Amino acid sequence: xxxxxxxxxxxxxxxxxxxxxxxxxxxxxxxxxxxxxxxxxxxxxxxxxxxxxxxxxxxxxxxxxxxxxxxxxxxxxxxxxxxxxxxxxxxxxxxxxxxxxxxxxxxxxxxxxxxxxxxxxxxxxxxxxxxxxxxxxxxxxxxxxxxxxxxxxxxxxxxxxxxxxxxxxxxxxxxxxxxxxxxxxxxxxxxxxxxxxxxxxxxxxxxxxxxxxxxxxxxxxxxxxxxxxxxxxxxxxxxxxxxxxxxxxxxxxxxxxxxxxxxxxxxxxxxxxxxxxxxxxxxxxxxxxxxxxxxxxxxxxxxxxxxxxxxxxxxxxxxxxxxxxxxxxxxxxxxxxxxxxxxxxxxxxxxxxxxxxxxxxxxxxxxxxxxxxxxxxxxxxxxxxxxxxxxxxxxxxxxxxxxxxxxxxxxxxxxxxxxxxx
Length: 422
Description:
- By secondary structure, the chain is mainly α.
- The chain has 15 helices and six strands.
- The strands form two sheets. Strands 3-4-6-5 form a four-stranded antiparallel beta sheet, with helices on both faces. Strands 1-2 form a two-stranded antiparallel ribbon.
- α5 (79-89) packs antiparallel against α8 and α11 (217-255) packs antiparallel against α12.
- The longest helix is centred in the C-terminal third of the chain and has 59 residues, at 259-317.
C-alpha cells in the first residue's frame, strides 16, 4: 500500500482534500458535465501511469490499484469506470493482449494501429467485465523492459558467444519476484530473450545488440560442452580428494604395521589415479573442442571482414573517376609551372631597368682601386720612418763614452727612500 507522502511526491494534488473529494466521488454521466468527466478520467489515467512507473510494476489488477489509492481508509469509487475507459483508449491493456501485441507487431502502438481503435475500444468492457488477472500500461512496460534488459546484460554470464549472453536460473537469483518474471516474459515475447531447457537446466539467451534471439544447434552444442566441463570439474575434484584420502590411509596402515591392508588401499589408490587421469584427458579434449568452435566463430568474423574489405576495394578501383587520372596529372603539372613563372616574375628586381648594371660595376672597381692606392702610400711613409729610426739607433751604438767622464745620475726617489729607511 502506498502512503500519502509517496503519492504526493509525484501528484501534488493528493494532499488537497477538497480536490481529492471530487476525484474520489462516483462518476456521473458524461452528458451532464463532459468537461468534469474528461478531467477525472485524465487525472486518474495519469496517476495510474505514474504509480506503476514509480513502483516498477509491469502488471497490476483493479484490486491492487484500489488498495494503492486508499486515502483516509477510502478507495476511489470511480476506479473501475476509469480503468474501463483507459482500456478503451489503449492507456491500459490486458496482459495477454499486450504480450500478443509485442510478439506480432513489436510495439503496442503498432498493434493498435494494425487492428484499429474500434477493435481496441470494444475490448474495454470485456477486459474489466471478465476481471482479468492483470493489466499493463504499455508505455510504462516498455520503459521497464528496457531497464530489465540492461540489468540482464550486466549479469556475469555462464557463457558469452558473439553478441549473446547465456545465463542460468542460478545467475538470475535476484530476478525471482513476480514483476521481474513478468518483464522477462515480455522480453521473450519481443524476442530479445529466449529460454530453452538444455539437459534439465533452463538457459536464458540474451541479445547484447537488441537483435532477434533464437536458439540454434550450435548454441545447444556449446552449452552441452560447457555443462560437460562443469561435470568433469566436479568429478576431477572428487577423485583428487579420494586419491589424497587413500594415500593418507596407506600411510596410517603402514605406521600400524598393517602391510596387507595398506597394500589393498594402495591398489585402490592406483585405480583411482588412473580414473583421474582419464577424466583429466576428457576435460582437455572437451576444452579443445570448445576452443575450436569458438575459434571458428572468430575466424568466420575475420573472413567476413576480409570479404567486405575486398568488395569495398574493388568498388573503389572500379570507380570511373580514376579513368582520367593522366589528364589530371598533366593539368597539375601545367598549373605548377604557371605558379613557378609567377614566382619568378614577382621576385624580379624592379631597379634593374632604371640603373645600368655595367656602370655600377665599373664605379665599384674604381673605388676599390683608390682605396688600394691610399693604403700603399701609408705603408711607404711608415717604411721610411722606420728606416730613420734604425739609422739613429746605429749611430748611438757607435758612440763610446768613458765612464769617469759621465757624471753619476742621481735619482731623487731613490734618495728619499734611503733617508726614510735611516
